[in-house]
Design brief:
The complex is a heterotrimer of chains A (about 80), B (about 350) and C (about 400). Chain A is elongated, with a radius of gyration of 13 Å. Chain A is built from three helices and two strands. The termini of chain A are far apart. Chain A has one domain: Winged helix-like DNA-binding domain superfamily/Winged helix DNA-binding domain (Arc Repressor Mutant, subunit A), CATH 1.10.10.10. Chain A is mainly α and about 80 residues long. Chain B is an alpha+beta fold and about 350 residues long. Chain B has eleven helices and 13 strands. In chain B, the strands form three sheets. A five-stranded antiparallel β-sheet of chain B has the order 1-2-3-6-5. Chain B has a five-stranded mixed β-sheet with strand order 7-8-9-12-13, with helices on one face. In chain B, strand 1 and strand 2 form a beta hairpin. Chain B is globular and about 75 Å long. Chain C has about 400 residues and is an alpha+beta fold. Chain C has a five-stranded antiparallel β-sheet with strand order 1-2-3-6-5. Chain C has a five-stranded mixed β-sheet with strand order 7-8-9-14-15. In chain C, strands 10-13 form a two-stranded antiparallel ribbon. Classes of the chains: A mainly alpha (about 80), B alpha+beta (about 350), C alpha+beta (about 400). At the B-C interface, strand 1, strand 3, strand 4, helix 2 and strand 5 of B face helix 2, helix 3, strand 1, strand 4 and helix 4 of C. Strand 5 of chain B pairs antiparallel with strand 4 of chain C, so a sheet runs across the interface.
Chain lengths: ~80, ~350, ~400
């Protein structure tokens, strides 16, 4: 069954959180993971769920050669080492 | 906090168009180049717009922009534009004001030109001013080459226009690969792994995933918590350094410059062409890069002497043959010139049509 | 101010000196002074001192800000953070001084006062500011009607040539298409969700002044289908030396219409008998050579539109590609529904099938042109190839047999 908007946001947040540091996920990876678990989910809802995570600051877009959705963190380049 | 405005896009262009353009939009009939750097476009209505074109350093300051605005305010009712090759164009309808624009540009050190059969401004990337993977600087080499080729910027002496571009590494964010002469920064060695820094700064799985050729593996000694690079697979793109600042790709001694020639994007006579490798390596020699400047001048002079009317660099080379190009320009032919990447066969000669 | 003996050598010479220019603001901007300092260091060390920052941005966007940090923060604290802001340029790069002065004011207040007019993609590049200045700078920009351009794996800022604003050759309204495309894809420009970058460049004619064939995933190049318009009196004036060739922009004072124009026509579709120029327009491949040489005598036809070519990119990863023809002719009239729909379909097919960092042109090569055409709803046309295949490795699908049985050429 399709997830509600709020459930979908949390589902995506958990995907990002569990992958953090191990694999960088793109927006499309998230969409594919959602659809795999919930085949009847509306794609557009996924798009706007990601937007909600980004707009709230819980997730950020990053760019490291490709663009990913990640949990905000201090990157290596910003450290004085 | 006021509500954030997002996704409005740029202002619509018609806000910035001079009245003569609004009135004659899509109704232009022909143009003439009155002198190097000065164009007139004539509309079907008979209306005219004059454009005075000058070179800029591309890397500029707000002071420069304000100076340029002062000129446009004084002579052009505040209208100006920039070109795809970082030239500035002052737009005016009153022919008698052209002299004023020219004088003002001269005072400011803005050279006029970049029209017709000239060497226009060099499009280029950021280099050491801002980029994290360059092999070379960009603005400094461009300044040095343009100083040397200055006479060709403000004249129409060449058989055709010559477009020069510079990219400071093979990622080519300037997409220089279809230029008459392309200046390319090259790394010649893989990144050096700073193991001690890496463990503090970088995520190992994502660093490994960042390599487009799969050349990065975990360090076999797990206690080191770092990575190793398969030198033979690395093509020096620097994407791992983008991900992980403990993998610098640059090398002060070995980095340098390559020149590629013969590209174009226009369809005139011949289809668009890629630039091809002419000089595989020249030393990285700031602040004036004399070897690069000299090599480009030599190619340009040989082209100017040898080309037929209207022939672009690439058309000239194709006509005389690459073996003749190397001979005429006195450039040694090396292993590096022969393609052995993915589509190499396309470039091998399969005919008897060659010269000794 | 740092001592910069190497950079100082770039102050002389006739070409505008970026060093002189940077020094003008270095007195009032610590960041500009330190930029000169670190650049001098790079000239000495022959290496860069910048590190990539992949996380900074403005809230809600994943585009428009490129993070940069210095590897010598103690020595050059003014550029410890030195992030770039991409400001989406107006189509055709037209400005009023008022608009430029407003932009300068914002950048003087919130950044280094250093900029590029313009960057490779087309945006105005504000070069160098700190993380805390990004939001206020963005707020000031949007309040004045400006927005950020694209970066990362997103729709990139579309750009275009001057088009109908000031060129008699433009076969469609490049500036309007560029503007409308930019507006149509705002969501995808600011929220990177593609496999990699996607660039659109609009050129009004086959001279391709924005190099779209070389550096746009979607190259839109203006073209005409009907006859080149000829003014025979002007042709005679060129032949007689009364009008200079190429608008006066060449070293040649007088045109020999036969030797310079018709003999160089790549399809040999023109002839000149000393008085009259004839063109077999059905065989013209619209290369523009004759028109460029005689702008007062020849103009493109009036049945105009654009050719769509897809796939060009710089060398990463498979080697550089130029775009190839996918739609030989499309009418280009506002609101450009057919174009927007096709671009949307391409995004969808590519997002569904593309690997991380795979440009759409590379994906097409990997999966094949057939998969692409079917995926986006286009039919095969001979204009899209230079030659048909020379090998016997062509294969048949069940749908081909079905089409054959139903007496159809293709699937539909």
């Amino acid at each position: 069954m399709a997830l509600s908007k709020a459930e979908l946001v949390e589902f995506i947040y958990d995907l990002v959180k569990n992958a953090q540091g191990k694999k960088q996920l793109k927006a499309m990876d998230l969409q594919k993971a959602v659809l795999k678990a919930n085949p009847d989910q509306d794609k557009n809802m996924v798009k706007f769920a990601i937007k909600e995570l980004i707009d709230s600051g819980r997730c950020v877009y990053t760019y490291f050669g490709g663009s990913f959705v990640e949990i905000p963190h201090e990157e290596g380049a910003a450290k004085k080492v | 906090m006021a509500e954030r405005i997002t996704d409005i896009g740029p202002p619509k262009f018609d806000k910035f168009l001079p009245p003569v353009i609004k009135d004659n939009y899509g109704k232009w009939k022909y143009h003439e180049i009155l002198e190097p750097g000065v164009l007139v476009h004539v509309a079907e209505s008979g209306a005219k717009i004059y454009s005075v074109r000058g070179g800029s350093g591309r890397l500029v300051t707000t002071d420069f922009i304000k100076d340029v605005c002062d000129i446009a305010d004084k002579f052009c009712d505040g209208y100006l534009r920039f070109t795809s090759r970082n030239n500035v164009e002052f737009l005016l309808t009153d022919q008698s004001k052209i002299a004023g624009v020219k004088d003002a540009c001269k005072k400011m050190g803005i050279p006029l030109g970049a029209t017709g059969h000239s060497v226009s401004n060099i499009v280029h990337t950021q280099g050491w001013v801002h980029c994290h993977t360059p092999a070379i600087d960009a603005s400094g080499i461009v300044k040095s080459v343009m100083d040397d080729l200055f006479e060709y910027f403000g004249s129409h002496k060449l058989p055709a226009q010559v477009r020069i571009a510079l990219a400071c590494c093979l990622n080519m964010c300037g997409a220089v690969h279809c230029s008459d002469i392309a200046i390319l920064g090259i790394h010649r060695t893989p990144p050096k792994v700073a193991h001690e820094k890496l463990r503090h700064l970088c995520e190992i799985p994502t660093t490994i995933a960042s390599c487009p050729t799969g050349a990065i593996r975990p360090h076999p000694d797990k206690s080191i918590k770092s990575v190793v690079i398969n030198d033979e697979r690395c093509m020096y793109c620097g994407n791992c350094y983008t991900m992980c600042p403990a993998l610098p790709v640059f090398d002060a001694q070995k980095g340098g410059v390559a020149l590629l020639v013969g590209g174009k994007v226009s369809n005139s006579k011949t289809p668009p062409m890629f630039s091809k490798l002419a000089v595989p390596y020249l030393p990285n020699n700031p602040p004036r890069w004399p070897e690069v400047v000299g090599a480009i001048r030599k190619i340009l002079i040989k082209y100017a002497e040898g080309a037929n009317k209207w022939e672009r660099v690439g058309e000239w080379v194709e006509r005389i043959g690459w073996e003749k190009f190397f001979e005429v320009c006195d450039i040694p032919f090396t292993f590096q010139h022969i393609d052995d990447y993915r589509w190499a066969y396309d470039t091998y000669r399969t005919s008897m049509h060659f010269k000794f | 101010m740092h001592k910069t003996p190497l950079l100082d050598q770039l102050e002389s010479g006739p070409w505008p000196s970026f060093i002189k220019d940077l020094k003008r603001v270095a007195g009032r901007k610590k960041s500009a002074a330190d930029l000169l300092g670190v650049l001098e260091r790079s000239y000495k060390d022959k290496i860069t001192h910048w590190k990539h920052g992949g996380i900074v941005g403005v809230l809600g966007y994943g585009s428009g800000i490129i993070g940069r940090y210095i590897d010598l923060p103690e020595e050059f604290p003014g550029v410890e953070h030195f992030h770039t802001v991409r400001v989406n340029q107006p189509a055709g790069w037209f400005y009023t001084t008022q608009a430029l002065r407003e932009l300068c004011e914002i950048w003087d207040e919130h950044g280094s006062s250093i900029l590029n007019v313009h960057g490779s993609t087309g945006d105005m590049i504000f070069l160098g500011t700190t993380t805390d200045q990004l939001e206020p700078c963005f707020a000031k920009l949007t309040a004045k009607g400006w927005d950020l351009g694209g970066s990362g794996s997103a729709m990139r800022t579309p750009s275009c040539c001057v088009g109908k604003a000031r060129c008699e050759w433009s076969c469609y309204d490049t500036m309007d298409l560029c503007y409308q495309t930019t507006q149509h894809f705002q969501f995808d420009m600011h929220r990177p969700s593609f496999p990699y970058k996607f660039k659109v460049k609009c050129s009004g004619c086959p001279n391709d002044c924005v190099a779209s064939v070389a550096r746009a995933d979607m190259s839109v190049i203006g073209v005409w289908k009907d006859d080149i318009r000829i003014d025979q009196a002007a042709v005679a004036a060129y032949q007689g030396g009364e009008i200079k060739p190429r608008g006066g922009g060449s070293p040649y004072a007088k045109l020999d219409v036969k030797a310079d124009v018709t003999d160089l026509c790549p399809t040999a579709c023109m002839s000149f008998d000393g008085k009259k120029l004839s063109i077999d327009n059905k065989n013209c491949n619209h290369c523009m050579h004759c028109i460029s040489l005689m702008p007062q005598a020849l103009r493109p036809g009036t049945e105009t539109g654009a050719t769509l070519l897809l796939g060009s990119h710089a060398p990463i990863l498979e080697g550089a590609q130029m775009s190839w023809v996918i739609v030989p002719f499309m009418e280009m009239e506002a609101p450009y529904d057919e174009f927007m729909e096709l671009v949307g379909n391409i995004h969808e097919w590519w997002s569904e099938n593309g690997k991380n960092r795979e440009r759409v042109g590379e994906l097409m090569l990997r999966l094949g042109m057939r998969a692409f055409l079917k995926g986006v709803g286009l039919e095969p046309v001979p204009q899209s190839v230079k030659t048909p295949r020379a090998n016997p490795f062509f294969f048949w699908h069940a749908e081909d047999f079905e089409a054959e049985a139903a007496g159809r050429k293709y699937i539909k």
